[in-house]
Amino acid sequence: MTEHMVVQIVTPDGIRYDHHATFISVTTPDGEMGILANHINTITPLTVHEMKIRRVDDEHHVDWVAVNGGILEIKDNIVTIVADSAERDRDIDISRAERAKQRAERDLKSAEQAHQSDDVRRAQVALRRALNRISVGNK
């Protein structure tokens, strides 16, 4: 049996991640999901979350990726995530993420005061994404 799987994260900008892993952790609308090699073939939606990837080269080597929703497919030890955006911890500009957080907080407050439910939802999503990027960037 294979002891590892290939993990690929694809965005409209191309492949953002492509490595072998022994374990990954993702978050779906139903909760957290841990995936090991030889996992049953699956397709599931993902939420905005911090993806943990334990690489095969060293049991202590963990990559963190800020994933902004998307779809996960597991098929024959190939895990593919298709997302609007995804950033590895080393690629995140914390100051830019902090500015996005502040913008989202202002937009949320303004939309709530104006009782604009669509704008409230958009600002909430932007805030979740910014907070996710900050959290992963600080790993």
Automatic annotation (TrEMBL):
- Localization per Swiss-Prot or TrEMBL: Cell membrane
Q: Which residues form the ATP synthase F1 complex delta/epsilon subunit N-terminal domain?
A: 6-86
Q: Is Ion transport given among the entry's keywords?
A: yes
Topology relative to the lipid bilayer, per the entry, is: Peripheral membrane protein
Positions of the ATP synthase epsilon subunit C-terminal domain: 91-136
Region Disordered: list its residue ranges: 97-121
Q: Tell me the Pfam families matching this sequence.
A: ATP-synt_DE, ATP-synt_DE_N
**InterPro entries reported in the protein's UniProt record:** ATP_F1_dsu/esu_C_sf (IPR036794), ATP_synth_F1_dsu/esu (IPR001469), ATP_synth_F1_dsu/esu_N (IPR020546), ATP_synth_F1_esu_C (IPR020547), ATPsynth_dsu/esu_N (IPR036771)
- Alphabetical keyword list: ATP synthesis, Cell membrane, CF(1), Hydrogen ion transport, Ion transport, Membrane, Transport
The UniProt family comment states: Belongs to the ATPase epsilon chain family.
Quaternary structure?
F-type ATPases have 2 components, CF(1) - the catalytic core - and CF(0) - the membrane proton channel. CF(1) has five subunits: alpha(3), beta(3), gamma(1), delta(1), epsilon(1). CF(0) has three main subunits: a, b and c.
Question: What PANTHER family does the entry give?
Answer: ATP SYNTHASE DELTA/EPSILON CHAIN, ATP SYNTHASE EPSILON CHAIN, CHLOROPLASTIC
What task does this protein carry out? Produces ATP from ADP in the presence of a proton gradient across the membrane.
Designated name of the protein: ATP synthase epsilon chain
Q: Which organism is it from?
A: Streptococcus dentapri
